[in-house]
Amino acid sequence: MFGAGSWGTAFAKVLADGGAEVTIWARRPEIAREIRETHRNTQYLRGINLPRTITATSSLRDSLRGAEQLYLAVPSQTLRDNLNALKPMLPAGIPVVSLMKGIEKASNARMSEVIADVLELDEERIAVASGPNLALEIAKEQPTAAVVSSVSLETAQAVAMAATNRYFRSFVNTDVVGTEFGGVLKNLIAVAIGIVDGVGYGENTKASIITRGLVEMTDFAVAHGGHPDTLSGLAGLGDLIATCQSPLSRNNTAGRLLGQGYALHEVVRQMDQTAEGLASVAPILSLARARGVAMPIVEQVHQVLAGTLKPQDIAPHLTTDETPTGERTTDDHEARTGSALRRALKRAFGVGGDGGRGPGGARP
Ligand SMILES: NC(=O)C1=CN([C@@H]2O[C@H](COP(=O)(O)OP(=O)(O)OC[C@H]3O[C@@H](n4cnc5c(N)ncnc54)[C@H](O)[C@@H]3O)[C@@H](O)[C@H]2O)C=CC1
Ligand SMILES: O=C(CO)COP(=O)(O)O
């Protein structure tokens, strides 16, 4: 496990509780020592005892020796430099899994694209894991599901198998684009919801923004080749719900501070953990413009961050656009998303499975 923050540590526990022996690489030697000697990571997961099958080191070489899978959980903007450092020590042929939910600002690339680029790996060896996965709840062993995605079903299943235990269930799909963008985009909507909370608006505003936000997420992902069903599954709707309604979400928290009137630099100063949404807004808008995708909510988040829109003026639509349009704005999207949502609700109250594809045969 590369990264000893809240998600790296919680996911290491998921893997260890699934039967794996896990070595965490921590940038700071004192965190590695605390995990190794006391089986705790008090800065990132207060009150959680870690399994004894987790160890930690700040030596890259030691962390990668004998590894059978590599999981990456560092802030997205630092990934490229970190990959360059670990590349010479990467054991041949192992799957590399992104747990991250950001976009690289300099290149507008998804994390799996940065991994393929720097490590020069075939797509088949890369997987991403995403879903409604607030680290502290999972570390407390509250039942949760996630989705592991790879263009290779075999890779997705091998990773899902490792990342499954009695309180954590990983489903699989092969829609890497939809899965990865779902995790990035829900952060932006969670910032918007935080702003609304900070301003003091109520449930109508939030429900409108969440619903319209899902339309933006789906339009964007589909325009980039993602499958709409993925966005109504765990990596889209599921994560959107978790992140928008939880005070544990750092994106939600950052938004709340903005809504309370703090400027972006003050918010960044107050945050002691990674809020990926703040850095992803600009690259997402640039990608959206290039494909002609309308993202009024994300646009307004951008304006609040830039200080050009008052937080209390945020709305589920652009207030400058007064022309009544259909509820869904692009082609046959209403039919597509509407039926996908109905299927998602049916699944939520009926049989399991994610994105209609379930665990891909054998239970992971
Ligand atoms: N915390 C959560 O509930 C979840 C987080 N994620 C994603 O996981 C990724 C990591 O986030 P968290 O663990 O939550 O963040 P965090 O802020 O809790 O921890 C980040 C870790 O990265 C380290 N770090 C910072 N700069 C670094 C650098 N230049 N090189 C190497 N390491 C560096 C920090 O020391 C810390 O150990 C993000 O992309 C986030 O969106 C995904 C699902 C759940
Ligand atoms: O991705 C997450 C939950 O699925 C964590 O959200 P935050 O990064 O906003 O805390």
UniProtKB/TrEMBL annotation:
GO aspect biological process, one term: glycerol-3-phosphate catabolic process
Positions bound to NAD(+): G3, A4, G5, S6, W7, G8, A135, R250
Binding site for substrate: K101, R250, N251
Taxonomic placement: Bacteria, Bacillati, Actinomycetota, Actinomycetes, Micrococcales
Active site annotation, chain numbering: K186 (proton acceptor)
Pathway terms, separated by semicolons: Membrane lipid metabolism; glycerophospholipid metabolism
GO cellular component: cytosol
EC number: 1.1.1.94
Subcellular localization: Cytoplasm
Domain Glycerol-3-phosphate dehydrogenase NAD-dependent C-terminal: 175-314
Binding site for sn-glycerol 3-phosphate: K101, G131, K186, D239, S249, R250, N251
Positions with a binding annotation for NADPH: S6, W7, R27, R28, Y44, K101, A135, R250, E276
Gene symbol of the encoding locus: gpsA
Family: Belongs to the NAD-dependent glycerol-3-phosphate dehydrogenase family.
InterPro entries per UniProt: 6-PGluconate_DH-like_C_sf, 6PGD_dom2, G3P_DH_NAD-dep, G3P_DH_NAD-dep_C, G3P_DH_NAD-dep_N, NAD(P)-bd_dom_sf
Glycerol-3-phosphate dehydrogenase NAD-dependent N-terminal domain mapped to chain residues: 1-153
UniProt keywords, alphabetically: Cytoplasm, Lipid biosynthesis, Lipid metabolism, NAD, NADP, Nucleotide-binding, Oxidoreductase, Phospholipid biosynthesis, Phospholipid metabolism
Protein name: Glycerol-3-phosphate dehydrogenase [NAD(P)+]
Catalytic activity, as annotated: sn-glycerol 3-phosphate + NAD(+) = dihydroxyacetone phosphate + NADH + H(+); sn-glycerol 3-phosphate + NADP(+) = dihydroxyacetone phosphate + NADPH + H(+)
GO MF annotation: an example: NAD binding
Residue spans of biased composition, Gly residues class: 350-364
Chain segments carrying region Disordered: 312-364
Pfam families (UniProt xref): NAD_Gly3P_dh_C, NAD_Gly3P_dh_N
Function: Catalyzes the reduction of the glycolytic intermediate dihydroxyacetone phosphate (DHAP) to sn-glycerol 3-phosphate (G3P), the key precursor for phospholipid synthesis.
